[in-house]
Write a structure and sequence with these properties.
Elements: H1 5-27, H2 35-49, H3 55-59, H4 93-114, H5 127-155, H6 158-170, H7 176-180, H8 186-204, H9 209-226, H10 238-247, H11 254-279, H12 286-289, H13 301-305, H14 312-315, H15 318-328, H16 335-353, H17 373-385, H18 388-415
Helix pairs in contact: 1-5, 2-4, 4-5, 5-6, 5-8, 6-17, 6-18, 8-9, 8-16, 9-11, 15-17, 16-17, 17-18
């Protein structure tokens, strides 16, 4: 029996909603943390105030513990500008996704209150509104994971694709940042990277180039707004794009390339303008404006790969299986799949070179979870090339790896 993509979508949404419900029961809310609150505060400021000043939004948060550990109302951990305003160093992309969801949540709240229900919480911060945003982000992620399944099922077969998507979701930090704590940017970045894979595949197989490159430019611009470092993936799409430019008449791709360039540039400019609104400095990198940066000459790869607190291989041993699949099926993998794999490798180096390779208070290698599609590619390639007994062995080993990652996730939640 073939697993239909819509069933994948329904299953992902159902499992995620169960995880969210369990999180709500455990914490009493879905909303907490540091980075996530900045993303949400910016979205709330856009939706409610029509500006980009997050000061009042953070001071009104229903989860002030991260910013005001003394509970004295000082919010002393928030960094402020000379004029007293709190500023955000985080990319604006996720906030632009959340803002319309907050608007929808406000409409649902208004309808509930008009029907006589009492909804507690400041505007934008009621459980109804927080859940509306969380569910919206889950739906976006589920669409991305479903599209990844569709890609791999066509490239290999449905069974191999199923092992791949289940392994990449449950065997990495991606499940935590999509189904347990979806207010971070990782799941949205993952979905955008899958969209890049789909567009690259279609372009490589003769899809209309004008439309494809225009959409690719738009998608890469959106990816930059959400997770700027991930646009490195474009370097690995050069062979596909160069082949189009060389082998097709310019009228079939140049207009689309111009549209894609303008669209992508406009989105990059959006981040530039947002950065200026926060610090009064023209910078594409809010972290750099705050004194954080990269030391590419001295990457802390041991922290990212094997440390007890964040090590990718320690928290996600399924990566070893996936890497084996990529090596054994190297000649079988298409260019778009290699783009995902190579970008995933580069991102390990980028994370290790960052001034905070420990990635903050995180479950596992959270900053790499955006690239979990590479795990799906490797697992699917491995399952596809093996005989029946080998397929069963890989599926069983993948299940064991997911179990290990899940145990560590539960321990992280309990200790938190």
């Amino acid at each position: 029996m073939t697993l239909r993509p819509r069933w994948v979508f329904v299953a992902v949404v159902a499992v995620s909603l169960l995880a969210l419900a369990r999180t709500q029961l455990y914490y009493g809310t879905l909303y907490h943390g540091w980075d996530a609150q900045f993303y949400y505060a910016t979205a709330r400021s856009i939706a409610l105030d029509g500006d980009l000043d997050v000061t009042n939004d953070l001071l009104e948060t229903p989860a002030p513990k991260s910013f005001d550990p003394d509970k004295d109302g000082s919010f002393r951990l928030l960094e402020r500008r000379p004029d007293g305003r709190v500023w955000s160093k985080y990319p604006v992309g996720l906030s632009l996704v959340e803002a319309p969801l907050i608007t929808l949540g406000r409409a649902l709240r208004a309808a509930a209150e008009a029907a006589g229900a009492k909804v507690a919480g400041r505007p934008g911060y009621s459980q109804l509104e927080l859940w509306t945003v969380a569910v919206g982000l889950v739906l976006l992620f589920a669409a991305g994971l479903t599209e990844l399944y569709r890609l791999l099922a066509a490239e290999f077969d449905p069974a191999a694709a199923a092992v791949g998507v289940v392994g990449c979701w449950g065997g990495t930090s991606l499940f935590f940042y999509s189904g347990v704590f979806p207010y971070m940017a990782h799941a949205t970045s993952f979905a955008l990277l899958v969209a890049v894979m789909r567009l690259a595949r279609d372009l490589g197989r003769g899809a209309p180039a004008n439309r494809g490159v225009a959409l690719l430019g738009l998608t890469l611009g959106a990816l930059f707004l959400v997770r700027p470092q991930q646009v490195v993936v474009v370097a690995f799409l050069v062979p596909t794009l160069a082949r189009i430019a060389v082998n097709q008449p310019w009228k079939s791709w140049l207009p689309g390339a111009a549209v894609g360039f303008v669209a992508g540039a406009a989105l990059v400019a959006t981040q530039l303008a947002f950065g200026y609104s926060q610090r009064g400095v023209w910078s594409l990198n809010g972290y750099a404006a705050g004194g954080e940066g990269f030391d590419f000459a001295h990457p802390n790869l041991s922290m990212v790969l094997i440390s007890e607190s964040r090590g990718l291989l320690r928290f996600s041993p399924v990566v070893v299986l996936a890497a084996t699949g990529c090596v054994l099926a190297a000649r079988r993998l298409p260019v778009y799949a290699w783009a995902a794999v190579l970008n995933a490798l580069v991102q390990l180096y980028v994370i290790a070179s960052w001034s905070s390779p420990e990635q903050g208070d995180a479950f596992g290698a959270r900053m790499w979870s955006d690239n979990a599609a590479a795990v799906a590619v490797g697992l699917a390639a491995l399952v596809f090339r093996l005989p029946k007994a080998g397929k069963i062995a890989v599926a069983a080993t993948t299940s064991a790896a997911i179990g290990w990652t899940t145990v560590l996730m539960v321990r992280y939640i309990w200790n938190g």
